[in-house]
Sequence to fold (172 residues):
Amino acid sequence: MYKFWSRFLVLCVVCLSLPAIAAACDPPYVGINGISDGSVLSGVQTVALSVWSETEVKGVDVYLDGKLITSLTPMLGKNADDEYAGSCAFAWDTRIVPDGTHEIYAKARAIGREDGVSDPIAVIIDNLIASPDQSSTEAEKPGRGSEEEGQTSEQSPDAAPGDQDPVLDAAD
Fold:
């Protein structure tokens, strides 16, 4: 009976001290690489993250203006100091974000302790300039217009402004 109570007591002491041990560890470090305050971004951007921790990390969440945009699992390995270090990255399509200034930051989710949060970075999204692979709308193409502008929908789409449709000429 003595063995049971002594083991029980040891187990209780260990279990009760785990939160204190976990709290003694620093929160994990997470940093956003390749983007700095004031960066002007457009299109698809690769966002790289560095993670370092004294204990394991469950994952990394990335936030834009306080809203979660992605969750990642970093590839962590132990270094010579028995610490976890690694990185992860994702492709961020800025075209789905309104143009203007936004704040991006990352949070490393720790196991049994406080999460680590990166410094926020203010970025400027500017997708107003059309890329060469984007096509104009039909109304913007030369030689096209609306019926309100005096052109009819019967005009050939390939006709230059002022050209007459050969089908209409034959009917005259």
Q: What stands out?
A: The CA atoms of residues 58 and 109 lie 5 Å apart. DSSP finds two helices and ten strands in the chain.
